[in-house]
Write a structure and sequence with these properties.
By secondary structure, the chain is of the alpha/beta class. The chain is built from 14 helices and 24 strands. It has a four-stranded mixed beta sheet with strand order 22-23-1-24. Helix 1 packs parallel to helix 7 and helix 5 packs parallel to helix 6. The radius of gyration is 21 Å and the shape is elongated. Bound molecules: uridine-diphosphate-2(N-acetylglucosaminyl) butyric acid (EPU).
Length: 417
């Protein structure tokens, strides 16, 4: 199993390019199921979760190829088997995103229930409630969700809570339903907007994405399109936090500063100097940062996917920070590992109380989930001496060649087996 070896204490400096967004690309790839014509997606990040999704789609009969500009072309001319097996859903919960498109296109779907995961229970009740409102009958048999509908019909759906993939699943299903569907209390995440833009490029009529009310006028068919996935705001935030925590100075290219306000504001509050242009962000940090309180919540508030990185950043800041997680119930797995590096953190309920210490010391730590792993890499970059991060496969799910990008920014980091 791969490990990362990090010699900490080097301020990051230089320029890096940010990849396409994992959480935008995954639903967009599923949108290919909605049409028999080719959907070509560009700016697709090279990640394990993307490979898993492509394997899942290929298994259903989607033809997948790469064009000369590295666009991924998907052709779902015929869907041979509308099934998402347990073996794949177990490794990647986002597989549940095939449910909505499959019912809309094939009138049936058999998708494994995802089960719990490292960061929380993560039920899919809102996905199912919405699909039932659209006219699907759903039963649970042998751990699978079996969904059927001759033709979906529009509905007015008020979601009980804000769910990103839930909103995306329903948007895709409603795109081919009879009549106009309204989704209330919809997720406002930029990745939802990116999916809506892709669907509209395919001939769908989605309005209001980015607000909490999305209106989808169903059409009888969608056509092919070429679509560029947005930049990854969490990769962007992770690199900025790493630069800030190491007292570095970096510029990130191909980014979307307009969707990162909550994170950039916190970095400024911590004492970093942040500037940006249309598609770049520069950060400069000198000396120790100030502790910053963080409270996660759905967009546009501070993202849960940046919480672990800010626990690491606060661990060497001046003062005490309260980091509160409100989206997932068990997303503090990184705390025990950061403590092995010498961080002073106590978890009280859904809040981590992080007391800044003078420095961290390298140690062996173990990654438990994607963003927890990112915070351990940050810890390693900050710490004196060598840090070994085990189980790097978690990082490979969501960060494209992280060690290469960090090396180019001056970090002493390498992968070992
Ligand atoms: N929830 C329910 N019922 C549902 C759906 C969600 O109770 O039917 C709960 C969840 O258990 C959670 C909360 O609602 O407590 C929010 O979950 P959400 O459904 O929004 O999460 P998700 O769609 O499964 C996506 C991202 C996550 C990101 C969250 C929150 C993708 C593929 N995944 O997950 O990304 O943390 O939204 O922003 O888009 C990551 O990239 O590391 C990651 C975990």
């Amino acid at each position: 199993m791969d490990r990362l070896l990090i010699e900490g204490g080097v301020p990051l400096s230089g320029e890096a390019r940010v990849s396409g967004a994992k959480n935008a690309t995954l639903p967009i790839l599923c949108a290919a199921l909605l049409t028999e014509e080719p959907l070509t997606v560009t700016n697709v990040p090279h990640l394990r979760d993307v490979t898993t999704m492509l394997n899942l789609l290929a298994q259903m009969g989607v033809a997948i190829s790469m064009d000369e500009q590295l666009g991924v072309e998907l052709v779902a001319a015929r869907i041979a088997s509308p099934v998402a097996p347990y073996e794949l859903v177990r490794t990647m919960r986002a597989s549940v995103l095939v449910l909505g498109p499959l019912i809309a296109r094939c009138g049936e779907a058999r998708v494994s229930l995802p089960g719990g995961c490292a960061i929380g229970l993560r039920p899919v009740d809102q996905h199912l409630k919405g699909l039932q409102a659209l006219g699907a009958t759903i039963s649970i048999e042998h751990g699978y969700m079996l969904a059927r509908a001759k033709r979906l019909r529009s509905a007015h759906i008020c979601m009980d809570l804000v769910t990103v993939t839930g909103t995306e699943n329903l948007m895709m299903a409603a795109a081919l339903a009879d009549g106009t569907t309204v989704l209330e209390n919809a997720a406002r995440e930029p990745e939802v907007v990116d999916l809506a833009n892709c669907l509209n490029a395919m001939g769908a009529k989605v309005q209001g994405a980015g607000s909490d009310i999305i209106t989808i006028e169903g059409v009888t068919r969608l056509h092919g399109a070429r679509y560029r996935a947005m930049a990854d705001r969490i990769e962007t935030g992770t690199f900025l936090a790493a630069a800030a925590a190491t007292g570095g100075s970096i510029t990130l290219r191909d980014v979307r500063p307009d969707i990162l306000d909550a994170v950039l504001d916190k970095l400024r509050e911590a004492g970093a100097h942040v500037t940006s242009g249309p598609d770049w962000i520069a950060l400069e940090a000198n000396g120790a940062l100030n502790a910053v309180n963080v409270r996660t919540a759905p967009y546009p508030a501070f993202p849960t996917d940046m919480q672990a990185q800010f626990v690491a950043l606060n661990s060497v800041a001046r003062g005490t920070a309260l980091v509160t997680e409100t989206v997932f119930e068990n997303r503090f797995m990184h705390v025990q590992e950061l403590k092995r590096l010498g961080a002073d953190i106590e978890v009280e309920g859904n809040t981590a109380v992080v007391k800044g210490v003078g420095h961290l010391d390298g140690a062996s730590v173990m990654a438990t989930d994607l963003r927890a792993s990112a915070s351990l890499v940050l810890g390693g970059l900050i710490a004196r001496g060598t840090t070994t991060v085990d189980r790097v496969y978690h990082l490979d799910r969501g960060y494209e060649r992280i060690e290469e990008k960090l090396s180019r920014l001056g970090a002493r980091i390498r992968r070992a087996r």
